[in-house]
Amino acid sequence: MTSGIFRNIIKTVYRGIFFDFGGTLVSEESDLIAHENIYRSIIERFGLDFSPENIDSAVRNRMESVLQNSEFQWERLIDHAISAIEDLLSENRISLTAEDKNWLEKIYVEMHARHLDLFPGVHETLRFLKSKDLHLGIISDIDDDLLHATLSQKKIKDFFDSITTSEEVGVGKPNPLIFRRALKKARLRPEWCIYVGNSVRHDVIGAKRIGMTSIYLGREPEVDPDYVAENFIELKEILQNLIP
């Protein structure tokens, strides 16, 4: 494994770079802030007498259950979040109307788009890659509406030539189907492509399984990716070595 040092004698000519989204382009800490603001908005709207943590616990328990099978069957996370909130409110004798559910979906998307923060160096790295003759893509386990709203809000949507989500494909990472769909859109072979992500299971294993070069974004993982970058400064250095 290398970190910023090119290790091969013959360089592969890469034609595509794909990124994960949550925890890779945007921070997990900002996702927590987005959820806290969602839950505070719910408490205010319905006059609830409990904390954001109460709602968060109910939603997380539901998500953990759903995500256990996400590699083989993807279901919209926002639907399950709303369902968990609906059950919690029902226990407090509050019934959601159709208008309430529409409001919940809207606030869920809006709060993520507003509060999710890009990691430092994302814009600079994307501008560098855009200056090359490369296909830039996203492969992410996420709901379409949330992803597109956030990319637009953060003004990075136009950097990407393709966006492939689990909602679109019907399965989550590391299932090869989602990677194959993205490669088909780009008309690229896996060995011509690099995948950058922060999850060993979903990103490193998924990319390596299909034959893409993997870059793990984070501290040294247990599974051996092709390259490791702790941040976007190191990532850009690696990519500058890999891309002529």
Features:
about 240 residues; alpha/beta; 10 helices; about 10% strand; elongated; disordered N terminus
> Helical residue percent?
40-55%
Number of strands: 6
Low-confidence stretches: 1-9
Average pLDDT reading: 92
Strands of the widest sheet, in order across it, are 3-2-1-4-5-6
**Beta-strand content bin:** 5-15%
**Which word captures the global form?**
elongated
The helix tally amounts to 10
Q: In angstroms, what separates the terminal alpha carbons?
A: 21 Å
Structural class: alpha/beta
Sequence of secondary-structure elements: EHHHHHEHEHHEHEEH
Q: Would you spell out the secondary-structure blueprint of this structure?
A:
Blueprint: E1 16-19, H1 28-46, H2 52-67, H3 77-91, H4 98-115, H5 122-130, E2 135-140, H6 144-153, E3 162-165, H7 166-169, H8 176-186, E4 193-197, H9 200-210, E5 213-217, E6 227-229, H10 232-242
Parallel strand pairs: 1-2, 1-4, 2-3, 4-5, 5-6
Structural notes for this entry:
There is one protein chain. Helix 6 links the parallel strand 2 (135-140) and strand 3 (162-165). Strands 3-2-1-4-5-6 form a six-stranded parallel beta sheet, with helices on both faces. Residues 1-9 have low confidence and may be disordered. It contains ten helices and six strands. The protein has helices at 28-46, 52-67, 77-91, 98-115, 122-130, 144-153, 166-169, 176-186, 200-210, 232-242, and strands at 16-19, 135-140, 162-165, 193-197, 213-217, 227-229. The protein is an alpha/beta fold.
Short description:
This protein has about 240 residues and is an alpha/beta fold.
